[in-house]
Amino acid sequence: MSKKGFSIASLSHKYIMAAAGAFLMLFLVMHLATNLLLIAGDGGIKFGEAVDFLLTNPLIKVMEYVLFAGFIIHILLGVIIEMHNRRSRPVGYHVSIKSGTSTFSKFMIHSGIIIFIFLLLHLYHFFFVKLGLVPLYGGAQEGHEFYPMVVHVFKNPLMVAIYLVSFIVLGFHLKHAFHSAFQSFGLNHDKYMPAIKAVGTIYAIAIALGFSVIPLYFYFIY
Ligand code: HEM
Known about the structure:
Shape: globular
Radius of gyration: 20 Å
Bound molecules: protoporphyrin IX containing FE
Number of strands: 0
Number of domains: 1
Helix content: over 70%
């Protein structure tokens, strides 16, 4: 492929990746809102109702496929863009500080890999149980009875630590991802960038802290 051909392709890669990323950022808000019902102190009644609603809603069923497609597209394009960037870096390129890219952005592929590994563990804990691929545990009677499974997972200090570290890494990933998505769409006006970055930081902290409250609640308080 010609150089121009590749740069047009990588430009559309960036758009698609940013669009998938923006969709995943919205998913995280919805997912956090549902999961915060776990700590309502009612033994999981409200959370169970929300899960039942989501399970019986045909639109959500469709969204689940869209969600997984979003994850796969985002991950694959992330790897492709990283490989392309590595190839186009001059040989002996060591002076990363002078490149103008922040430490966070260089950390994106690494944080992405950590989040991917977390996701595999996380799907094993809940989603694969719902699909019947992993046996029921924690006293759950059905694959979608997640509350006792959550209690079981977060009584294990190792799991609490793995989840908390993953949420911190996720927070850093999101902090950069938020303004980076705006840049990919060409919405990076100098005047608005500081505000966009500030909103991104607030979003990233809210997501990381919001999710972290859940394992901490089950480990220390429940
Ligand atoms: C303490 C924090 C979290 C808890 C308690 C939690 C809980 C759950 C539960 C119970 C499910 C199964 C829902 C179902 O299949 O109907 C699920 C699914 C899922 N979770 Fe989480 N989650 C947490 C954090 C996260 C984070 C940070 C991410 C992304 C980085 C994530 C991504 C997913 C995905 C992709 C699914 C499968 C799709 C779905 O069923 O919605 N979760 N989670």
